[in-house]
Structure formats: structure tokens, C-alpha cells
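User: Show me a protein chain along with its predicted structure.
Assistant: Here is one chain, sequence first, then C-alpha cells.
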Amino acid sequence: MLAVSISHTLAATNLTLITTIASAFTAAWVFGIITQRLRLSPIVGYILGGIAIGPHTPGFVGDLDLAHQLAEIGVILLMFGVGLHFNLRDLLEVRHVAIPGAVGQSLIATLLGIAVAAAFGWQLRAGLVFGMAMAVASTVVLLRMLLDNRMLDTPHGHVAVGWLIVEDIFTVIVLVLIPALSIATGAESSPAAASLWKTLPLALVKLCIMLALMMLVGARVVPWIMVQVARLRSRELFTLTVLVMAIAVAAAAQQLFGASLALGAFLAGMLVGLSPVSHQAAADALPLRDAFAVLFFASVGMIFDPGFLIQQPLLVLCGLGIILIGKPLIALVIVAVIGYPVRTGITVALGLAQIGEFSFILSEVGRSNRLLDETAHNVLVACALVSITLNPLLFRLAGPLERWIQRRPAAWRLLNHRAARRERRMNEQTGRELERDMSPLAVIVGYGPVGQTVDALLRGSGRQTVVVDLNMDTVQALTREGRLALYGDAYNIEVMHQALPRATHLVITLPHSVNRNPLIAAAKLINPQIKVFVRARYLAEQQDLQQVGADAACYEEAEAAVALARLVLFDQGADPQTIRRETIRIRQQFTAPDPLES
């Protein structure tokens, strides 16, 4: 009888777990499809799915305790993925604007959150966590918006991504402080307890020891383990090793050093990212991360009480004011003060006008450490739902908003004054050279790997070139070498109006298409004899480029097809003549015939 009773108990427990997972996945799937069809972020659908199976809505109710534990796994895998893909190089490329900008914006937005929390009677520690959760934007939502608007590869998109990398670092720092603040909070409830100034340094010392062990020992041991397991050629064992590194390291960091699970997972991801097999680790972790991320967002929705919107409308409006008005305005002003163009400021401002997964992670860690209550969580969820829903609509207003500011000279001068002055200062030497020497030249837009290759070929054949780039370090380095280089947004015709009249060629090596066609048309008007060669990403852009006057274009889709076909033919033993003939046929199938191959 006892064995039967135990088996029934286990069966009931398992059924609860399976039912909770099944209901969460199903609800998130249904609402995710709906939001995707509405061209909204699926994150909104996942949260709505959680609300649908939560205790505050009628119908089926999932197990909240199990949902919380599954959400913890989701947090671990999310932060592990962030650490795994943490790219310091992307940050260094835009450090001049991303670091001071993100630091300033995060501090001011956090102070606004603290002010709102204080106005509603919250403690300072709760206000600090709440403010930082309001300050940090969702990387997932930002990347989606940049991709949908073809802005990810633009200089403005690079600045926005670098900005969020700094915010992610800030989030990690707050994850370090939350357990220490919790210790201090719990200690103060006892008469014999230590003060905050005693408990906080102790917690920080423990975390420093953990960081030292991970960086000095883990940075060597973890990559070595990953390589050794990979050599066993067992897919299952390798995936299991990735999970061990993510979950076991995070749990050990919490148990031994008092760190949050999120921080331990982030550091574990960084260590795995140092190994030669990090790409395979990322590929194996991705499906699990996505699955548990859905459960994480669903669990966030399960806790949310929709009635809170009626009970505390003023608190929700204050939170939305910080996210939709405060953060964008702060970012726009900071970008203008640093001296970047208005378009960069608008891109960053709109990208920050939302909150998402990192805000929820901070909320979960804050709740588990008794620093935030259900009220704060409800505010964050309500603000996330509204801001993520509105973000695609806001991004579509980037162009009209920039034109609206341009039609108001006072506002345009205020926001673009320092950018224009910096452009003039950096381009002064090149401008004098262009005025003094009237020999023909080629204008190269962008100085990445493609731009460098084209520049080297042209200079090798004796042609003078002028490079136009929005990377300050690149322009300064070229200028120090005595080269002609212009700093600024190449798609702003004013940046290179001095070079175009005497240019024989305009070579656009940047793949993004935002504002590219107006540049080509303006260049043809200034210099009808100029030849415009363009790098484009999609074959669908061919007709538009021909209409604005592009003389020739290289389409990445077509060239990828040609390159893969050549590899397949070579592997099959085809002779060089056959390979050349098929290459010409495939290229002509996609684009106009290449005169060099006819």
C-alpha cells in the first residue's frame, strides 16, 4: 500500500510538471503566433500566454511554484547565452559614444525610477533595483527592430547595439549588488546585525574571490574541458557538458559565493566563449535557451495581475513616462552632446523606448532577495507589454521624425550643432587638400574589409582615393597617415560635397540601403559623369538602384549562390571551363550580364 501511495504521489507530481509545461508552451505558442502575425514581438505573446494560464484570469491555472523554478532555468540559459556572445570588439568600435552615453542614460533613468518609487512610498533599495530595471532595454527587441528596418549594419545601428552592451554590463553589476543589498536588508532586521557598510564589503570580497577563481582557473579549465569532450565526438555528451557549465556553475556560484544565478550563468558563458568550440556550444545551447526563455516569459505573465492596471494606473503611467519619454529624450540629448548625428540619436532613443528580458531578470532576482514586491513586478510587466507593442510603430517614425526636426532650424541646430562642428574640425585638413588638388579621385563609402580591399586596389593602380566613414578612429588613423578621409554619415550629401565634383567613381561598400538611393541620385546631379558602383544585399534592390542611376551593383545573394556553386562543381571534379561557364550562367540568371564575362 505504501509503495502504491508513493507511486501515485510521484505520478501526480509529474503530471503537474508536465501539465504546467504543456499549458505554458501551448498558451505562449498561440499568442506568439497572433502577435507575430500582427508584426509585434513574440515576447508580447509569450507574456500574454502566461497571463492566460495565471491565477488572475479565469480558466486553467498553472502551478506557480513549478513555473518559477522553470523560469530560473530560463534566466540561467538566457544569461549564459549573453555571456557566450559577449563581444568586446563591438563595444570598442563605438566606445566614444556607447560608454558615456549608456552610463549617463542608465544613471539618470535609474534616478527617475528611484524618484517614482519614493513618491509611492517604496524603500531606497527597492527604488534602486526598480530604477535599473526601468533603465535597461531589451537586446532581443532592439536587434529585432534593427533587422526589420535594415539598420543593424548601419553605423547608427552599431551605436545602438554597443549602447545596449554597456547596459548589459550595468545589469551584471546590479546582479552583483542585489544579493549584498539583500544581506544588509535582512541583517538590519536584527538588533545585533551588522550594518550595510559591513555586510556589503564582505559580499563584494566574496564576489571578487569568485571572479578571480573564474578568470584565473576557470578561463583555463573550462575551455580545456570543452575541447576534451568535443574530441570524444559524442553530440549528447557535448550538449550535456554545455548544460553542466551553464547550470552547475551558476548554482555553485550562488551556493558558495552568494552570487545570483544570473551572474554565475553570465560568467560561465564568458568562460565557454573562450574555448575554440564556443560556436558549437552556442548552437547546442540555442534550442534549450529558446525553449526555457519562452517558459521564463510565460512565468512572468503568470504572476501579473491585469487588474493592477485599474488599481494603480498612475504608477503604470509614471513607469511608461520613464520608458517612452524620459529614456529617449535623455539618449537623444546625450548623443547630441557627444557630437553624433541626429539620426544616430533617434535610432538609439527609439531603441531604448522599451524594456524586456533583463528588466524581468532584475525583477526576479529582486523578488527572490525580498527587495521588490508584486507591485513592482506588475509595473514592469505592464510597462514591458505596452512598450514592446509600441516599439515597432515608433521605429517606423524614425525617418519622419528626423525630417520633422530638420524643418525646425532651431531644434536642428541644437541637436546637430556639435556633430556638425566635429565634422568640420575633423574634415578641415581633407577639405583643404581637396580644394588645393583638383586631380581626379575615387570616393569610397565605408572602410570595412570590402572598402579596404577596393581602396588598396585603386591606390595600387595609381588612383587617388578619399574614404568616407562614420568611425572616428578610422578617419583619424587615415588622416595621420596623410590619407584623404572624411568623417560623417556618407548618406548625408553635405559630408562629401567637396569630393563629388571631381570624382570619377563613387564606390558604396556598405550593405545597408537606408538613404542610399537619395545619395546616388544627388551624386549624379552634382556630377553626371561619375560612375556609381554599389554593394547591395538583396536582389530585390536591383530595380530601385537602376532607377536612381547606379552603374553597377554587386548583390550578396547572387554572389553567395555563385560561390557555393563553384565549390560544389570543384568538389565534383568539374574542369575550369565548365566552372567558368556555369558561374556566368548563374550570375546572369540573377542579375544583368557582367560585361567582363561576356
